[in-house]
Amino acid sequence: xxxxxxxxxxxxxxxxxxxxxxxxxxxxxxxxxxxxxxxxxxxxxxxxxxxxxxxxxxxxxxxxxxxxxxxxxxxxxxxxxxxxxxxxxxxxxxxxxxxxxxxxxxxxxxxxxxxxxxxxxxxxxxxxxxxxxxxxxxxxxxxxxxxxxxxxxxxxxxxxxxxxxxxxxxxxxxxxxxxxxxxxxx
Amino acid sequence: xxxxxxxxxxxxxxxxxxxxxxxxxxxxxxxxxxxxxxxxxxxxxxxxxxxxxxxxxxxxxxxxxxxxxxxxxxxxxxxxxxxxxxxxxxxxxxxxxxxxxxxxxxxxxxxxxxxxxxxxxxxxxxxxxxxxxxxxxxxxxxxxxxxxxxxxxxxxxxxxxxxxxxxxxxxxxxxxxxxxxxxxxxxxxxxxxxxxxxxxxxxxxxxxxxxxxxxxxxxxxxxxxxxxxxxxxxxxxxxxxxxxxxxxxxxxxxxxxxxxxxxxxxxxxxxxxxxxxxxxxxxxxxxxxxxxxxxxxxxxxxxxxxxxxxxxxxxxxxxxxxxxxxxxxxxxxxxxxxxxxxxxxxxxxxxxxxxxxxxxxxxxxxxxxxxxxxxxxxxxxxxxxxxxxxxxxxxxxxxxxxxxxx
Lengths: 186, 406
Prior knowledge:
Helix content of chain B: 55-70%
Radius of gyration of chain B: 23 Å
Order of helices and strands of chain A: HHHHHHHH
Oligomer: heterodimer
CATH class of the domain at 1-80 in chain A: Mainly Alpha
Number of helices of chain B: 13
Structural class of chain B: mainly alpha
CATH superfamily of the domain at 1-80 in chain A: NADH-ubiquinone/plastoquinone oxidoreductase chain 6, subunit NuoJ
Strand content of chain A: under 5%
Mean pLDDT of chain B: 84
Helix content of chain A: over 70%
């Protein structure tokens, strides 16, 4: 009974948040709706006893990534309502529904195919396997079976950071020229 | 099942439910009252350090001063700036207030950790832990909630529709997000030693002074945690969020009345919660002080642990006030340099070194091999630090050539 209530409440959060992301015209409100969605997913994780995933979901996604979104929105000052009539990329309009239908089809097919196969074989509750079973299992598979994928992901992140720095840091030519003109030794 | 407490294993009766409700109620009220006295304590101690008298009119020793101030705040006019984003402006105080309350629930405020009791006490015929909840993710819940608290400050500044609060909140969120990394890394060393994330488990592993994590992890993680926690709390010397000289009042400039009171309350409540978390993680929480076979005995029945817990927390509250009275505020670039160029690398290096040591011990290396491993590890770490220093030097020089003033 409690599971059903929690499931419905969390799902409402997820769906409401997702709708908010799409429909709100103010980017800050959209980002906040995204936080609502992430929280709903975290609640789902907790109700499936995946406590660690729930914590990471909140710490990483809600606590860092969306904060970064908001940071950029605030810093760039794009907190004005976007005019939706002028579309910078016209093709996006037509590709959007296509991608949406495609994703829906993929997920739907996956659910239908998996319906008969996800019979729970033997799941042990946290009261039998102990407090930290979640973390230990995750760590074991991350650092043994999937260690290459894991390391490659971190390399990807480093590349992204280095690339961003490279793109963002241009030598300030104008200032240098001005100083040389003024006769200041750099 | 959402958390592990001996009370809630098996059938949950109305009695068990009542115990949980009492725990929640008591911690709510105690936290509010304690916040009130914390404000008084801070003002009184600061006054003492500055050769003033401090609040002394309301009640004995001015104890009720906060109550008077609070009542006044509640009856003031609640202003809403014209340019404010109404919904977010109203939401923000709660985003900072609610996490402040919630994060206290993971702290074991007492309990009997001797003789394999694992923190359980018997109260009114029920065996329970003296903490509101003991979730398996333990300390991570505290970290998650402190990352939610960022939203409160950030949105408060943005939704005010005014530039000084916005600047204050942008600073604050950058500061809090940066220092969360150092905070997390120093907590990770404790997970490494304790082998668990549950606060109850962490306290349980700290019997005797030698096993207190402040000693067992080698002090450095404690120092890093202390610094990062101070920055996370936006307390002096890291209180750039409300640098009055530059930002009028910081993110809460436009707030008044009860909404301002909520921010104020959350700030002091976070200070207490953070002190409690430090005590839990590094100083054995409710464990008594014991060196070797000698134990400082205090007999208070089921509340012996609570006595030790409160005594240790008070020390840290005093230290935070002491910081405020002693240290001048950092400049913003100094703050960021300290976080990114010093605390995070040191925390990471220390974590790696401890992990290496742990692996060596688990693999059954001899003393000589362990020492050799330590030397090699130290050499690698030193080389990395050298590289990092070179990198920061080069970038500082390049910046200077391009005309930056800092």
